[in-house]
Amino acid sequence: MSSSVLGIVIIAVVAVFIVFLLGSGMRRRSIAMRQLRGQLAGGDPSARAPGSAVEIADAGHVPALELFAALRIAEVPELDAEGEPNDVAGLGLTLREGSTTSSGKSRPQVMLGKRNGHQVFIRQGSFGHSINPALGFQNYRHITTVRVEAPDFELRADDGRLVPSDGAPGEVAGVAADLSASPDVWHELRVVGGSEGIVASRGASTDFLGGWIYDLWLIERLAARLDADPLPDVRLTRSWTPPYLADWAPSPLDSLRRG
Q1: Average confidence score pLDDT of the chain
Q2: CA-CA distances (angstroms) from residue 214 to 1, 57, 68, 127, 197?
Q3: 3 state DSSP class of 140
Q4: How far apart are CA 121 and CA 216, in angstroms?
Q5: Does the global pTM surpass 0.90?
Q6: How many CA atoms lie within 13 A of 151 on its CB side?
Q7: I need a surface site. Which of 70, 80, 149, 250 has the fewest CB within 10 A?
Q8: What pLDDT shows up at residue 32?
């Protein structure tokens, strides 16, 4: 095969892969937008009182706004002192908005604080670089950390369900078994537990339902089921690095296989 023909073949393969990734994202968006007009992402927030998240065994079929309301630990005014939305304060967290400079550099958005006795850190933004914009979308992620001391385990999303790693504690397998299939919620997600906390990394480019809300519920449910003790407090800042998954994203092959 001549070099010119080989070059054409390579370009064609790359083009097909990019179209697949974009098409997969659009398919997910189409499904998600239908759900937004239906039950999953709608719901009545007033139907869930603060602290009621512990009563939910299968969050994948709870509307996002209702789940958010259930995860609150306190009632707060709708607007803060500056007239800005105050929702995150009800979670016991502080929002630090991200930004992008004129040079193209960006800072992630973070939510951080302490709730239910443990520290929480949620980072939303990109990391690393990619020469291919389509593949670079893999590096735009929501990373949710709950700082508790947990045994070693992993969960991975597969076909709308969460699959525990071999040897995962029975409590972890039990939480996963309680969840019925929900492809719009449990997708492009990896959860790792260990002595430095429990962390979830979710692809943001295919997340149209506020997936970090579901991840926070999931991790705190795992922590409660494991009876995991809070880790000693550390100083959380925008630059704090989550353990395990801070620079992880699925390989292009994983994206192709799981799309």
Answers
A1: 80
A2: 50, 12, 8, 22, 17
A3: strand
A4: 10
A5: no
A6: 17
A7: 80
A8: 39
CA distance 11 to 9: 5
Tokens of 140: 């735009």
Residue 59 · residue 67 · CB < 8 Å = yes
Could you give phi then psi for residue 101, rounded to 5 degrees?
A: -85, 170
- For residues 130 and 254, the model is more confident at 254
Which residue is listed with tokens 């073949």?
A: 9
Q: What is the per-residue burial (b if ≥16 Cβ within 10 Å, else e) of 165-204?
A: eeebbebbbebbeebeebebbbbbbbbbbeebbbbbbbbb
CA-CA distance, 113 to 235, in Å (whole number)? 10
CA–CA separation, 259 and 133 (whole Å): 17
Q: Which domain holds residue 110?
A: 3-258
Q: How far apart are CA 135 and CA 17, in angstroms?
A: 9
Chain segment 177-218, per-residue pLDDT in tens: 999 999 989 998 999 999 999 999 998 766 666 899 999 999
How far apart, in whole angstroms, are the C-alpha atoms of residue 141 and residue 158? 18
